[in-house]
Amino acid sequence: MTDYLVTIATFAVIYGITAMALNVRWGWAGEFDFFVYGLLAVGGYTYAVMVLPPAPKNDPGLIYMLGLKAPAIVGALAAMGVTGVISLVVGAIALRNLRQVFFGIMTFSSVLIMTAVVGQEVDLFNGYNGVFNVPQPFHSSLHLNSEAYSFFFLGICIVVLIVVYFVLERIFWSPYGLVLRAIREDEVAAAAFGFSPYTSRLKAYVAGGMIAGLSGALLVSYLTAFNTDAWSPIETVLIFAAIIIGGTGNSRGAILGSFIIFGVILEGTRFLPALPGNPDAPSAFRAIAIALVTLAFLRWRPQGILPERHYQDRSETVSLPRIPALQHRGDGNLEG
Amino acid sequence: MTAILEINGLSKHFGGVQAVSDFSLSVEKGSITGLIGPNGAGKSTVIELVSGFQKPDTGAIVFAGRKIQGREPHRIGQLGLLRTFQLAREWPKLTVMENMLVAALDQRRPTIWRALATPGRLREAQEADRGRAQAILADFDLLALRNDLAGTLSGGQKRLLEFARLVIAKPAMVLLDEPLAGVNPVLGARIQESIEILASRDITVLLVEHNLRLIEALCSSVAVMALGTRIAFGNMAELRSDTKVVDAYLGTSA
């Protein structure tokens, strides 16, 4: 039972980091982005090929690039670097003119193309076989038994979650975060006040992408395998659901939503009785449950459980003298 | 007297419509200059061209000694030339105070790097901005609403918030596009005061407006546009006796 709970918690924490990444793009900047799950895959693959030993020369079933046997931290940084660069390229094109649903279509198609290319290019990425036996961070040096190691790994994930949370909080409350939300609300007005919508959005897109890449590295090091089949843009919908339920624009909400989706709803529906002769029923119920909960939130509480937070000015205000121009009122009626 | 904004030979067409043709205007520093004309005269297009939201076909626009024609809107905003729109454009899901804090920012300051490297300095700057914002919001009767989302304000309050944002941004010049559009007479008086506040803070104003009483009350000089070009320039008394102006508004008599 403990094993089971640790497994669920690990997944929920990793997806919590992914949800915070998507929240930067969707909650803060307002981008209807489907590329984030592709970045999870890119980050995961980059991490895997950085930390794996070189691919065996004479095994046609196992082909991958690099194989640098790098330390886990180097692998994670490489994952963030590669996803940052890819986000920069995709964002630089998509953010020029596309907004909302058009942006969604563009990023959705980009992931489909990426999945197809990775799946077909056996010589480069090993196609749908993926990579496996990815070493886990510090596993060989710590000599822990598997139960102790699963706690240790959960600890790593929680530390990463906390660091990402505080970095994002600092950005959220900074002038940059404020300007980004103003651009989300009305980019024309923001441009008129001298803020570049394109540059600000692109920065947020890259920052969100790097965090998604980091969560992908964690996910692959936890699963010890990477397989293209498991990565589809449909999965992004689950992350959107987590943000909508938890609270759009609020990092705490993104974490809470991930625990609700991946911890409560996905796992809770596993205990539903199986329907004889209908093996697909449990996963269908799971999808229906998530859809219903998400729709209910969109209808009755669109801001989510923990809404976006605002700068609150609680200071005592003294009555300030009005400036002279206001004391002589104009000629009154201006009706022409 | 020096000109802060000089427009020379400005032209712009949309498809087959020549919206602005060979328009020239010089706005004196510190003045409130009016720009009037019948509907479709091209006044709003001039604002769009000067503020960078549209690119001119030909012509030169010089603001504070720099050529700005064809530059992106945010670059023009950074030079201290701001504008308003015919409909109020607040940032609805930010609070009134947050709207003010955004407008108060030095546009080059907000970067992720600074957010992570120097959070303390940014917080101090924000405290200073908050104090200024409170004083300005008090002038516009919005202080009590400072923690409300701007989207929940009434139409008139949104207009006043736009002026409050302009005041805290400390621009050198503002382009006001029909600030009285859809505004009741009582609020109209407040808008007039708001424009006087801008002028009292050494902000040059170019005012596009259909309400000639407001123009007469505020503007020392007024340009009249018709069919995309300037047909007259002077004070309102001079313009009233100008037959070209009367014809433009009432239709040319045969």
Describe the protein in words.
The complex is a heterodimer of chains A (336) and B (254). By secondary structure, chain A is mostly helical. Chain A has a domain at 2-231. Chain A is built from 14 helices and no strands. Chain A has helices at residues 2-28, 36-51, 72-97, 100-120, 122-125, 139-142, 146-173, 175-185, 187-192, 197-223, 234-246, 251-268, 281-300, 324-327. In chain A, helix 1 (2-28) packs antiparallel against helix 10, helix 3 (72-97) packs antiparallel against helix 10 and helix 11 (234-246) packs across helix 12 (251-268). Chain A is globular. The model of chain A is unreliable at 324-336 (pLDDT under 50). With 254 residues, chain B is of the alpha/beta class. Chain B has two domains: 3-90 and 170-250, 3-Layer(aba) Sandwich (Rossmann fold); 96-152, no CATH class. In chain B, the strands form two sheets. Chain B has a six-stranded mixed sheet, sandwiched between helices. In chain B, helix 3 packs across helix 5 (119-139) and helix 3 runs parallel beside helix 6 (155-169). The mean pLDDT of chain B is 90. Chains A and B meet through helix 7, helix 8, helix 9, helix 10 and helix 14 of A and helix 2, helix 3, helix 4, helix 5 and helix 7 of B.
Please name the defining characteristics of this protein.
heterodimer, A: 336 residues, mainly alpha, 67% helix, globular, B: 254 residues, alpha/beta, Rossmann fold, 2 domains, four-stranded antiparallel β-sheet, 10 strands
Helical region count of chain A? 14
- Give the overall shape of chain A, derived from the CA principal axes: globular
- Rg of Cα set of chain B: 19 Å
| Low-confidence blocks of residues of chain A | 324-336
Rg result of chain A: 23 Å
Record field, number of beta strands of chain A: 0
Structural class of chain B: alpha/beta
The chain pair with the largest interface is: A-B, 49 and 66 residues
Q: Could you describe the largest sheet of chain A, including whether it forms a barrel? A: none
Strand count, sense and barrel status of the largest sheet of chain B are: 6 strands, mixed
- Tell me the overall shape of chain B: globular
Query: What percentage of amino acids of chain A are in beta strands?
Result: under 5%
Give average pLDDT of chain B, whole number: 90
The percent range for helix content of chain A is: 55-70%
Order of helices and strands of chain A: HHHHHHHHHHHHHH
Note the total helix count of chain B. Answer: 10
- The CATH architecture term of the largest domain in chain B is 3-Layer(aba) Sandwich
Order of secondary-structure elements of chain B: EEEHEEHEHHHHEHEHEEHH
